[in-house]
Amino acid sequence: MLYDKQTIEQMDSRYRAHFINALTGYKSANLIGTVSESGIENLAIFSSVFHLGAHPPLIGMISRPDSVTRDTLANIKQTGSYTINHVGSSFIKAAHQTSARYDEDISEFDMVGLTPDYRNGHIAPHVNESPCSLSMMLREYNPLEINGTVMIIGEIIDVYVEEHAIRHDGSIDVRSLKSVSVTGLDEYHSLSGPIRLSYAKADKTLDVLE
Amino acid sequence: MLYDKQTIEQMDSRYRAHFINALTGYKSANLIGTVSESGIENLAIFSSVFHLGAHPPLIGMISRPDSVTRDTLANIKQTGSYTINHVGSSFIKAAHQTSARYDEDISEFDMVGLTPDYRNGHIAPHVNESPCSLSMMLREYNPLEINGTVMIIGEIIDVYVEEHAIRHDGSIDVRSLKSVSVTGLDEYHSLSGPIRLSYAKADKTLDVLE
User: Fold this and answer.
1) How far is Cα B205 from Cα B84, in angstroms, rounded to an integer?
2) Which residues on chain A are in Cβ contact (under 8 Å) with B19?
């Protein structure tokens, strides 16, 4: 079925938001933890966190500049500090609830029932319930002219991850962490049936590992 | 378990690549289809495709400038055209195999056994086997100074998606497309058990939809 440019343009805006947001397939589900200079904590769910590089270890994410994420962006700019926390299957509803519009003097941690945790001198709070949580230092704050979104680039400082999930080659069994994935605006997935494949070479057939 | 900055720096580079690439959780798995001005087709798997906005419909992706993706980048720059194709569970191995280093005069479509398909006047080839395939027009080509990667921003022109997967509200049942997700460098997942949640409001309990 073809949906051409004109058909997409004529979609109702909410319908189009559902449709376009689903086209990139499975996305990571992460909670971004921050705190303002005056000590007000903030927690917001993001589905646009992406790997940027391993050395130095860099992660990017995209944010709209609107009211739901305004506090997150302001706190990151003020403090240069944030955390990235995998959403675990045990707290999907709490994580999704952070996308509601709360006043800026309200902590989403309190509102949704997750626990802020300050670790190793890092300014921003971690989510205690998260199976994989990263201390991030802001490296670049780039408004994108093309549509007014903001690209945040941060460097990974500390990584907290359940030890059982680390394999001998450094890879992480994300499924065993019970992290979830999101598609579209509101659909959360637990995963099953991973297949690991061998390093691809031009003259070699791939093997299934393990 | 804490892995601090120093521990991460001291990791063996391959170990670190596995480790850091897994930290963003579940990623989309997409094949990028391109063709050079001289007509040589190219196909490359990307796990860094991300949603940038719904109106206009924009998608970003990150690429290393190295030899494996060099042809993809050159073709996009030359023609301004590419396709994004969901990796389906029936061709995971073929998709992963495109990450091997083939010579530039070789078509990965031929090498891995996927079928190029030219649609609706779009310059770049689609992957015929893909359950969801997008015609993309290059909007921005941005080398990122921070680590030498390249950010490609494109506008969605045409969308080809299996009709049964489109719900009444515009959302897409990605699971029914049998698209896969990737974690780390080489681990592919089919999904089960999605939970859709209602629009989050500050004063309302979330409902599970459907």
Assistant:
1) 37
2) 54, 159, 166, 170-172
